[in-house]
User: Fold this.
Amino acid sequence: MTRYAAPGTEGAIVSYQSRYDHFIGGEYVPPARGQYFENPSPVNGQPFTEVARGTAEDVERALDAAHAAAPAWGRTSASARSDVLLRIADRMEANLEKLAVAESWENGKPVRETLAADIPLAIDHFRYFAGAIRSQEGSLSELDDDTVAYHFHEPLGVVAQIIPWNFPILMATWKLAPALAAGNAVVIKPAEQTPASIHYWMSLVSDLLPPGVVNIVNGFGVEAGKPLASSPRVAKVAFTGETTTGRLIMQYASENIKPVTLELGGKSPNIFFDDVWAKDDDFRDKALEGFTMFALNQGEVCTCPSRALVQQGHYDEFMAAAVARTEQIKPGNPLDTETMIGAQASNDQLEKILSYLDIGRQEGAKVLTGGERIRYDGELAGGYYVQPTIFQGDNRMRIFQEEIFGPVVSVTSFADFDDAMKIANDTLYGLGAGVWTRDISTAYRAGRTIQAGRVWTNCYHQYPAHAAFGGYKQSGIGRETHKMMLDHYQQTKNLLVSYSPKKLGLF
Amino acid sequence: MDDMNGIGDMDGIDDTTDGLRHGDGTGHDDGTGARGDDVVPRVAVTPAAAGLLRRLRADHGPLMFHQSGGCCDGSAPMCYPAGEFRTGGSDVLLAELDVEGVAETVPFWMSRSQYAAWSHTRLIVDVVEGRGSGFSLEAPEGVRFLIRSRLVGT
Assistant:
């Protein structure tokens, strides 16, 4: 095991600056109104840096820089942009451990996850879009002997990206990599809970990017996010978050007739058919791990498998094993590589989770394990910790219908295939789902019946590049982590060309 | 932050007895049974939340709530200047909150589809320390509105 020292303390492999300004036009620029806000680590609740509190003036300055940079960046060759992304990936790989510790300290997530997932995935997504843009081709349509329609991809220009706090660097990468590959300049607003780790990332890669191609404006949604999302100077807005803000961003975009991509969460069902229990083998073990994935990233994942549907035939045996497996989850200091569940990202997030533990009990759900806040003494005192919690109840309870965004799974049983599909689709959302069975026909039919954009089949919580990710129903618009995301950052230019010297003859 | 624990003092809750109204503003009963015999408020406000609303009203003018769903900062109420968020036929007006010291009522909205899952609970708007994202007005003050819930009939 390894216990990393907290950033900025003796023996630490990485340090944060004591203050971060906005990154605009390739340099750090103080906020126009001179205000900053404190940034606490959820590990202990203590501020470790302060960050510029951006306003409309700062957003305009960033948009000026982005508009100055966009034309030249958009004209660079695909190979040149690809090369920039590959160099960014290489630089991140060389600093993987530092990025992982910085991310863990700011978000509260266990460093074993940032070392194994967040940062390696971010590196790979940059490489993927570096390759995708090299291989992208336009098209032509030969309409007749003399007439050809050419279709070119052109960048949108300047795009706005609003990043969530649950995977600050990885979610920024999901949006930055395709936007940059496609030739856009970006103004990015990190979440106010996690405004700093992207600046550590930028300190590693800023020399690789032309000034103004990536601009970072920090601040609060109402003060910085709104002027960015509502600006007529952005060609597109990308947002990951919740439904009300998603609707508000669509409303702003409608005023300017701009496209949006939205990822707004889910209440993902994780379905375990009876035949999972047919043998005590690797697959059963894998399925139990799949159940326990609700605790990944403290449950702060849009696709958290927060509803488990377990078939009645082996329900008791399965749940006894699932509870035992959940109770093996090791909580503690996120900077310890043995720790499996760390801190919730903010105090209000902690309070919201606790409010759902309360309403779940009021509704009559049974707590099979967990159900309480964890309070530590010593170095973790003041941090935001919750026990991995399993509720057993009914799908119409609010804990089955609303995204808690914590390490909480709500379990119910089902009778047969149709019952499972009915419960699975009885939700406002359709982002993720899991299906576990040894029968390929059942797996296929379930995957096609579930109204969700991503159905993990005999696996869960894998996020490889080149597999499309996005939502059905109220979970959003667009597909990330796949080359089709390039289309969301490009215009189509059609040149309709006549090679005939002859007139049409109408006039 | 002394008043952050106001939730424990249920007697101090500012309440409303308004029933539900359709998003089209017609004000007629939507059939959820909340109108008329609903003596317990559908949406209430803790003293701490009322205090925050008074401060926000002074800074931003008339206010509104829309309850969010979904990931990240979802499942929490968003507070906007009145009219900033456009409601429509897909929304339900749960209450017009009467907050002491605020000249006009504060409408509390939720999407109709989400309300289908929430209708058996009544909501208490509270406030906690924290740093929510989203575009809610109170976030820069280092606090966040939060919903606490009680089952209807309790």
